[in-house]
Amino acid sequence: MHNTPLFWLLFNVFVIGLLLLDLLVFNRKAHAVKMREALGWSAFWVALSLAFNFLVYRTMGSEAGLQWLTGYLVEKALSVDNLFVFLLIFNYFKVPDQFQHRILFWGVLGALILRAVFILVGGALLAKFHFLIYILGAFLMYTGVKMGLSGDQPDIDPENNPVVRFLSRHLPITRQMEGGKFFVRRDGVRFATPLFVVLVMVETTDVVFAADSIPAILAITRDTFIVFTSNVFALLGLRAMYFALAGMMRLFHYLHYGLSLILVFIGAKILLESFYRIPMPIALGVVGGLLLFSVLASLIWPKAETETEVN
């Protein structure tokens, strides 16, 4: 049932309907999203995700249900790194609060399309060339170690970003924001606005993160349905989570290390699969335990403010 063309059509229509409802009804007017509104939407998206997870559990069995929940948690956790980078980009370009939701909306839409391509290509390659699964496992372990050693500060330099430099060379760009517009026309010439540059940076940033997150969930399951739908629901709640956590993201300074351990664990799980298959309940427990421990550690041992941060 879940792999029939009709189901895929209905599911994608449902997702597009939710996005249009968000853009054209609930957020038709540009406004700064307050904490209370963001928390409400976050609760809605999480509840909707868990309801879909329950549907998977009832129709496909407990193993599929646990795989879906594990994949959803991994994608949701890894997206926290995205949020911190988005915050840096918005601060660097001084994007007004009321326009951030619009950028994130189109950013999420682009990410959904991009990740669908990644999942289809990745799934097809793994199905045809099984040895790639071990390369995938080693890659995840390498990425996890690299993430842990890099610390909790993302490597981002908008001024020297190749995408920004390319756009600056090939597109006329206005020096100031033009309301919520991505393009404006002046004297018959079409200009991109800084808001469009920010959108392109958000999209290209997601390409980098997808290179980590898609292999991570493909390591949990190669069921295209579970991989894609758990990704979709994790991304749908990304904007609300950004506004809910924007002021608190610096609190979770140990989460970065928890994510690196999760990637190492998933990579090791793949490499050990030929000798011992780790049961999905244990894998879910490890992922959830690492997330919980890193969050609690961040709250118990808060990060000391540097002199720069205080000033």
TrEMBL record:
It is a multi-pass membrane protein. Pfam families: TerC. Belongs to the TerC family. It is found in: Membrane. Signal peptide: none annotated. NCBIfam families: R_switched_Alx. This is Tellurium resistance protein TerC. One of its GO terms (cellular component) is membrane. It comes from Hymenobacter lapidarius. Its main location: membrane. Keywords: Membrane, Transmembrane, Transmembrane helix. The chain crosses the membrane at residues 6-26, 38-57, 77-93, 105-125, 131-149, 195-218, 224-242, 254-272, 278-301. It comes from the Bacteria.
